[in-house]
Amino acid sequence: MNTDHLMIAFLKAFALNTWYMVAEMAPYLIFGFAIAGLLHILIRKEQVQGLLGKPGLGAVFKACLIGVPMPLCSCSVIPAAASLHKSGASRGATAAFLSSTPQTGVDSILATYSLMGGLFATVRVVVAFVSGIVTGFLIELFCKEKAESQPPKTPPPTINFSPNLSPNPNLNSDPQSTLSKITSMIKTPQVSALKPQVSNPQPSRLSTALRYGFVNLPADLAVALLIGLVLAGLITTLLPPDLISGHFSTGSLAFLLATVISLPLYICATASIPMAYALMAAGLSPGAALIFLITGPATNTATVISLWKMLGHKATLIYLGSLIVIAWIAGGLLNSTLGTQTIEHSVHQHAAMQPELWQHLSGIVLILILLISLGLSRPPKAAAKSCCSD
User: Fold this and answer.
1) By three-state DSSP, how is residue 314 classified?
2) CA distances (Å), 163 to each of 66, 167, 168, 172, 316, in order?
3) What is the Cα–Cα distance from 298 to 97, expressed in whole angstroms?
């Protein structure tokens, strides 16, 4: 009987802790989704590719300036960076974009503010920007672009119709074939002109923004965010406050543990926030939590493999090394300069507060958005079967 009571008490505490974090993050995430949809229609990929094409510190700076507010997670930033690199973006600009973009975004910035306060959110944005600039600049400095050898362009074969000039050997060799080619060239535009022009109606900018902000982006984040919230609820329930203390909390061991855990971890910037919040509530230092938030989204197995293929092994090692060094420096400065007591006190004080009614309603809306977006983004069964059969 005591075991049943303990299990019921644990499940109740776990459900409350998880839901409180959902309610706290929900208003800021919903607002972040709306801003993300607006940025999606304002920032065009063609414009980004044009700004990042020239090598140098200017392109690296622009890549960070564009990447920090963009709501791209650890998975969606990889094809975006590959597309930029194939379109002519330099190695440094590609690495800067790949470093700064997944660390932050309008949704994760607002979510960080909701759980950890404005000071921590500001530090996170600054570190993401600085890490992107340093990473991109070092790769620009030590990994020079190689000029790709292109085969010489051969002019297209021409057909000479004038009898006064030297005849084309291909024309005399097979006059019947040449005549049929000329006839097809003349008839092709006439046939295409007779075809009815079917104009597909383009969706409006408002519908595009709403679909990206409240369907595409939540669908990308839904699974990782729900898993992160559940793990954070478990950590908060199982680990009492101040369980993690001593050198394991603030020293180099905490920094090393946060780095080792977050390096291969596949987690997005938004989903990592409740986990870092729960670890800080259990006594982990803000500096170690910051390292977890920096290296987790920006470095994972998929990112490292993709970067290795795009930019080479030397650029990949520079990317990883510079990110780890910057994360450790930022974590040490956060603990020593700002002090752990201020941030830890605000976290504990925030954990003791219960969400208000409007936050609970926002939490319900957020869960509905995540579930509906997953349903809308899933392809129909008939289409999936036809694709497989093809």
Assistant:
1) helix
2) 60, 7, 10, 12, 62
3) 10
CA angle 222, 263, 88 (to 5 degrees): 80
**In 3D, which of 104, 31, 108, 113 has the Cα closest to residue 350?**
113
pTM for this prediction: 0.65
- Highest mean pLDDT: which range of 22-31, 85-94, 184-193, 355-364: 355-364
* Gap between the Cα atoms of 126 and 133, Å rounded: 11
Q: pLDDT digits over 117-154, tens only?
A: 888 888 889 999 999 999 999 998 888 765 444 444 45
Q: Are 161 and 356 in contact (CB under 8 A)?
A: no
151, part of any domain: no
Nearest CA to 25 among 372, 271, 332?
Answer: 271
Domain count for the chain, please give it.
Answer: 1
Is 154 inside any structural domain?
no
Angle CA(239)–CA(243)–CA(245) in degrees, nearest 5? Answer: 145
Which of 215, 208, 210, 217 minimizes the C-alpha distance to 71? 217
Indicate whether 331 belongs to any domain.
yes
Which residue is listed with tokens 């694709």? 387
The string of DSSP letters for 9-52 reads HHHHHHHHHHHHHHHHHHHHHHHHHHHHHHHHHHS-HHHHHHHT
